[in-house]
Amino acid sequence: MGALEALITRASAVRLGEPAPSDADVADAFRAAARAPDHGLLRPWEFITIRGDARHALGEVMAQALAAREPHVPASVLTRERQKPFRAPLLIVVAAKVQPDHPKIPEIEQVMSAAAAAHNLGIVFHAKGFGTMWRTGAMAYDVAVKRAPGLDAHDHIVAIQYVGTPEAHSPDDWRVDPADFVTDWTGVPPD
């Protein structure tokens, strides 16, 4: 699959199963991720792979973090939270290891670089026939969840990429026509 086809046909998977990508496929994805735009060559990314039994540990961390944020959450919701890491055989936490007070590179640019790296991962996996779901939510901003795999409180989880063999994709009917959001500026301020 060529680059253009991979970009215009990529869609989030809604169900993922085995097999996960091979170690060689994952290594290719990381090489592509490291080609993300990176103002100042800070290399602000960190990629944390989670598979096998480590998904149990992550599920427990996520459930405990949810219980701490929402003490009255029902047990059934905590059980669902524990099961989230089992949506796919491989999870990749993409983090921005930011330098908050960098004298030249704003923190937002460091975060955007990590997000571009996460996008590159998804494109490579799609081109190789795998599917991904990019997730964040409250867990991505929770300090306890960040610390579990070794991130600092000021780091940003920009994506938890669920990766596996696609069993179903999101429908294409939600996509918009690019003409709906492309404008040409003529140099004259709008009214």
CATH homologous superfamily of the domain at 3-51 and 87-169? NADH Oxidase
- H and E string: HEHEHHEHEHHE
Rounded mean pLDDT is 94
Overall, the morphology is globular
What's the count of strands? 5
CATH top level assignment of the domain at 3-51 and 87-169 = Alpha Beta
Helix residue percentage: 25-40%
How is this structure best described in words?
With 191 residues, the protein is of the alpha+beta class. It has a domain at 3-51 and 87-169: NADH Oxidase (3-Layer(aba) Sandwich). It has seven helices and five strands, in the order αβαβααβαβααβ. Strands 1, 2, 3, 4 and 5 form a five-stranded antiparallel β-sheet that branches.
Lay out the secondary structure.
Elements: H1 3-9, E1 13-17, H2 23-33, E2 45-51, H3 54-69, H4 75-83, E3 90-96, H5 107-127, E4 131-135, H6 138-141, H7 143-147, E5 156-169
